[in-house]
Structure formats: structure tokens, C-alpha cells
């Protein structure tokens, strides 16, 4: 017998065979492109820490959505940047609010794109927290009632999926109950079941002007040191009726994506967040890394961990590369 008898490299020598034994592949069907919609008309502002991503009014956004559809990306996720913010987040559930108007316009112009709405309050609150604040605390149950109202107004305006991202207790159940009672029992809830209190959201908060005016989000978002608690959050959201689970951020939490996939039988999404985008953009801008290779490796690692759906600001680039590679990366 020669040494060694088992040679894993046999399967790596031929590029055709390498393709045949690949365990995971990324297709455009996996991608969701997040977009920031600001109120009004004819405004399009770049976000310095997120090159290529804009805060834009719906007239401009419609052009980009056309591009997204042409690239074969099936879904977008909308974040609203209202003109007015107040302590009740009243523009979040206003039928004439920025997201509700955007939904109407998108549905009027396109039938093929799936629209997911971020169901949260922080972008609409003058203090930037994800719930109603009393005595410097985010109070749970009245905030959840408000979130259900926001979800309902988004469903009424044409949202295909609502995605609560607040991390308050009981919101999936409350949203499900209100949607069902108002004739929207067919609208799925994609819950950010496990959202960590993360510094990787920095650029997003700059984009959405939603950094908390005081304190932090540690009383509702999860501690990054915890994974057993993630299981508790996942189980709760499944029990409350979540149709799809989201883990966020993605890269520093791939172990949690993997656990969510093993523990449940519903689809798992992962959010490749703004800080993850900014770091790759900054380093590739300096010529320190190869952007295409790094993004491809990053997205496939999220897939390999178990994500069925990936939210990423790189969706358009990835879709172009997928096309060039004949369908999958
Ligand atoms: C707000 C929300 C945040 C993100 C998505 N929804 C920010 C936060 O919780 O502070 C972050 C997304 C990103 O960083 O790309 N509910």
C-alpha cells in the first residue's frame, strides 16, 4: 500500500469535477437588496460610509428598482427616512407616510418584485429608539401595539412581507393577530428573531439618521456573547408564528445562522449588514483586498452556514457576477 491511501485532493484537481462536488452555490434567488427611501421628490444623497448606496426619494428609487428587477434580484427591503420624527413614531403608520407611499408607487409600476418592509420605530422616533420611551426606558407592550399598527399600515399599502426588527417581546404574536384580524392572514412575517446589539450597524444609523439620542440598544437587542439565548429567541418567534427567521448581523454570527437552520424547519435569512459592507468597500477602495473575491467568499460562507435568504448591499454586484458565471457563484 502506498502512502497516503486516502487523497482528498483527487476531487480538487479537475475544475469540472470541483464544480460537480461543490456543496453550496449562490443564486440571485437568494438575494434581497435593502434600500433607503427618503420623503419627498427628486433627492438622492450618497452615504459616505456606504459607497454605491443612496438615500433617495421614491422617484429615483423606481429607476433603481427597475435595474434590480433586470438583474434578476427577486426582492427588496425598504427602510423609511421620514421628514418628521416624534415620540410616537406617527409617520411610521401614516397611510401617507414615506414607506406607504413608496409601496403604492412600486406596486403601481412593477408586479414582479417582492417588497419586504422593515417594521420598526427607530427611524420615526425623535429619540432613535425602537420603542416608546418612558423614564429613559423602552417600554415593551405599548411599543408592540404600535409595531402591529405599523405592520398593518404597511400590509394595507401593499407590503408582501413585514419584517419586525425591534427585538421587543411578543411582537410576532401581536403583529400576526392584528394582520389576521384585518384580512392580511396571507402576509408572512419575517422576524429578526436574533438581532444582536452590534457596532456593525454604524453606517446604517448614519444612513437612516437613527442612532439613539441617549443610551444604547442593549436593553432590547441581544448580547453578542450569547448563543443559548438565541435559541430561546428562535423558539419563541417560531411559536409566535414567524414564517421566516432572520439572524443579524451575518458574519460574526454564522454559528447562530447554522443553529437556526438545524433547530427549525422554516427558512432562515441572514443580514449582511452595513458595517460588513463598509469594511469591504473601504479595504477594496484602498486596493488592499480583491472586492469580487472577498464578496463571493463572504456570501457563500453565509449560504454554507445555512441561510436560505441573504440581505446584502452587494446584491446588485453579486447578481452581475452570477450572470457572468452562468447562474451561480
Ligand atoms: C433598525 C434597523 C437597524 C438595521 C436594520 N434595521 C439598525 C439598528 O438596529 O440600529 C441595521 C442594518 C444595517 O446595519 O445594515 N431597526
Structure description:
This protein is α/β, with parallel strands linked by helices. It has one domain (20-324): Aldolase class I (TIM Barrel, Alpha-Beta Barrel), CATH 3.20.20. The protein has eleven helices and twelve strands. Strands 1, 2, 3, 4, 5, 8, 9, 10, 11 and 12 form a ten-stranded mixed sheet that branches. A hairpin with a 2-residue loop joins strand 6 (132-134) and strand 7. The longest helix is centred in the middle third of the chain and has 18 residues, at 140-157. The radius of gyration is 20 Å and the shape is globular. It starts with 14 loop residues before the first helix and ends in a 5-residue tail after the last helix. The structure holds ligand PBG. Ligand PBG binds at residues 118, 120, 122, 130, 165, 201, 204-205, 273-274.
Amino acid at each position: 500500500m502506498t502512502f497516503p491511501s486516502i487523497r482528498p485532493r483527487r476531487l480538487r484537481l479537475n475544475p469540472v469535477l470541483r464544480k460537480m462536488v461543490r456543496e453550496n452555490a449562490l443564486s440571485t434567488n437568494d438575494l434581497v437588496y435593502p434600500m433607503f427611501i427618503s420623503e419627498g421628490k427628486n433627492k438622492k444623497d450618497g452615504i459616505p460610509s456606504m459607497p454605491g448606496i443612496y438615500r433617495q426619494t421614491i422617484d429615483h428609487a423606481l429607476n433603481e428598482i427597475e435595474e434590480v428587477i433586470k438583474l434578476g434580484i427577486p426582492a427588496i427591503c425598504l427602510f423609511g427616512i421620514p421628514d418628521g420624527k416624534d415620540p410616537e413614531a406617527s409617520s411610521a403608520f401614516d397611510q401617507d407616510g414615506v414607506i406607504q407611499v413608496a409601496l403604492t408607487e412600486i406596486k403601481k409600476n412593477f408586479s414582479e418584485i417582492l417588497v419586504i418592509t422593515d417594521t420598526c420605530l427607530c427611524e420615526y422616533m425623535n429619540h432613535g429608539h425602537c420603542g416608546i420611551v418612558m423614564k429613559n426606558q423602552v417600554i415593551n407592550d405599548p411599543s408592540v401595539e404600535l409595531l402591529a399598527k405599523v405592520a398593518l399600515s404597511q400590509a394595507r399599502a401593499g407590503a408582501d412581507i413585514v419584517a419586525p426588527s425591534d427585538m421587543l417581546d411578543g411582537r410576532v404574536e401581536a403583529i400576526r393577530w392584528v394582520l389576521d384580524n384585518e384580512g392580511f392572514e396571507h402576509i408572512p412575517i419575517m422576524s429578526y428573531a436574533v438581532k444582536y446589539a452590534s457596532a456593525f450597524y454604524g453606517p446604517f444609523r448614519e444612513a437612516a439618521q437613527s442612532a439613539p439620542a441617549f443610551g444604547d440598544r442593549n436593553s432590547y437587542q441581544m448580547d453578542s456573547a450569547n448563543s443559548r439565548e438565541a435559541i430561546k429567541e428562535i423558539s419563541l418567534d417560531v411559536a409566535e408564528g414567524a414564517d421566516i427567521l432572520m439572524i443579524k448581523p451575518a458574519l460574526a454570527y454564522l454559528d447562530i445562522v447554522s443553529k437556526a437552520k438545524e433547530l427549525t424547519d422554516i427558512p432562515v435569512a441572514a443580514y449582511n449588514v452595513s458595517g460588513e459592507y463598509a469594511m469591504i468597500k473601504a479595504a477594496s477602495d484602498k486596493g488592499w483586498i480583491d472586492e469580487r473575491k472577498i464578496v463571493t467568499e463572504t456570501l457563500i460562507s453565509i449560504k454554507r452556514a445555512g441561510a436560505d435568504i441573504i440581505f446584502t448591499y452587494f446584491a446588485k454586484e453579486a447578481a452581475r457576477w452570477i450572470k457572468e458565471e452562468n447562474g451561480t457563484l
